[in-house]
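Task: complex structure prediction.
Instruction: return structure tokens for all chains below.
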Amino acid sequence: MALLEVQDLHTRFRTDDGIVQAVSGVSFELDRGQTLGVVGESGSGKSVTFLSVMGLHDKRQAEMTGSVRFDNQEILGLSTNQLRHIRGKRIGMIFQDPMTSLNPVKKIGWQLEEAVLIHNDVPRSEARRRAIEVLEEVEIPKAETRVDDYAHQFSGGMRQRVMIAMALINQPEILIADEPTTALDVTTQAQILRLMEKLQEDHGMAIVMITHDLGVVAELADDVVVMYGGRIVESSKVDDLFVKPEMPYTWGLLGSLPRVDVDVERLEQIPGQPPSLLRPPRGCAFNPRCAYTFDRCREELPELRPAEGKNDHYFRCHLDEGDRARIWAEKQAAMAPAGAESAA
Amino acid sequence: MSELLAVENLEKYFPVTRGLIFQKEIAQVKAVDGVNFTLNAGETLGVVGESGCGKSTMARCIARLLEPTGGKIIFNGQDITHLGRKEMRPIRRDMMMVFQDPYASLNARKRVGAIIAEPLEVHQIGSDADRKRRVQELLEIVGLSPEHYNRFPHEFSGGQRQRIGIARALSINPKLIICDEPVSALDVSVQAQILNLLKDLQRDFDLTYIFIAHDLNVVRHVSDRVMVMYLGKPVETGSRTELYAAPKHPYSGALLSAVPIADPKLGRARKQIVLVGDVPSPINPPAACRFHPRCPRFVDGVCNVDEPVLTPVPGSTDHEFACHFPLERWPMGDDELRHEGAFSREAAPAAAVD
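Output:
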């Protein structure tokens, strides 16, 4: 039994312009100790999916159906009161922008202690001890004095460490990280990724890494889910996804990434914009931007189906196996390894 | 190729003051401290470094948005370091900037047409009708549609706004465009669109770029030459191919190894230098080599005593570095990392087989 099981999750928002279908039939599982990378552009539904899992949408606007089972208990549709025992205690969350997620007028220590006191019946002194301990664990130097500092006294990377500390303070079983390194320098990003890896080793928690950067996913994830237009369009083990991605959107994401290890004259670009979730295109949501669209793509939504000979790699695309293998082989041939041009 | 821009020993110090009325200068922030480079027409210089390393300040000094404290800026054969506002005006026609945040750099209350036409108006180029025609042409060049002329910035996505910013920079046919982190705020797929657009425009309009970014992948893709900066000083400069194939300065090595590689097997197998801590304060920068407190190859008694100067790599024409103990090989060997902070991720068995 997986720790988190999401089955056929749909999330709709009522807006003045009509119904926005933000998530359409997303299913996945997450085990203890596993790292799941969730990739997609802005508006692909990746954040909304996990806000739905956590029950963080305004119930007056959002309508959710499907099933979210956490540790064998259905949590979709639980009241805020019931969710309170899970959120922040058994499932922790880190957001992209550490400056807006921290309270600027309260000391870091106070905010960390609060997270402890809400969920545990302990005195404040004990909460403070926990706060210092967890700051040390995320490698903040001089934790016992920094605990009395305010958010603005920390650098961007340090603030993100504080956010991680806050998410970890109650030793959650799942850590959901929504673009935790997007706002950071590469060097700081490397620090944070290594830190998350180490914390996972120490605590054995599951991590969900939401990002638009396939590089980050390649570094950290065990499994990957690619989302587009509110649907999962490909899911696979991380190694397999980079060796043989099965559908055009994933090809596009890989091709649009400038890489230190590969030389290309021109980046592949996915033309146009992500689809409107208010008026999604007919058929495959990717068809207006796809270079391989044919009639069937405009009419019929492709089912999530397994890749040939694999039971852990699924994708949505009408192209048949032969075409996909040929196109991917061509694309790979176009990527010369770095340094080839200097040798030539 | 002719030299378009030469920067000699550029310095920008900001005073740190105390007191409200009699502001006493108590210290200086040496944001840019001795930068030298030349840039040929049609070339792209990539400038890389962490936040706070002075790369944006340098760009603003070159564009004369900030008054340099010392040094010389020679643009198109003319010393522009201390020109007044009026004298700068004709020069500004040849120098434009594209900014990082496409949300903050466009006036929310102006229509797109007016935003792009503004440089034309400032420099009094063409009649109203000419300008409108030019703006519509520009919209098409940057991949938008002429119908977007009357829309407001909020109607556009981040990538489209960046295109508007680029159209504005192009409007008066500049020679040099300074791009300050133009793609950092964008999604990977949109980033690719903008990078391709910048490359196409360079080819079509013979543009020269200074391209500032913290992402080495991006810089490598667009640049001919790269300058790595740390705390206001260049620590390594070189042609793109040489610098990425054989970085000499440990800081360049650290930046390069910190970049996520979109290949799980390669990523696990490689050695990574993870720098400890943040960039130190430029108010009181570390003595001698400014990188020494974070350096994986630090040697006591040398690096903290004697400041290294930029020295050329033997046998190379334009690859220079400032380090006493440069990296000998790339990728690094285990023996090259003397100190904590640098470590290699364990090679997974799968990677060892390949």
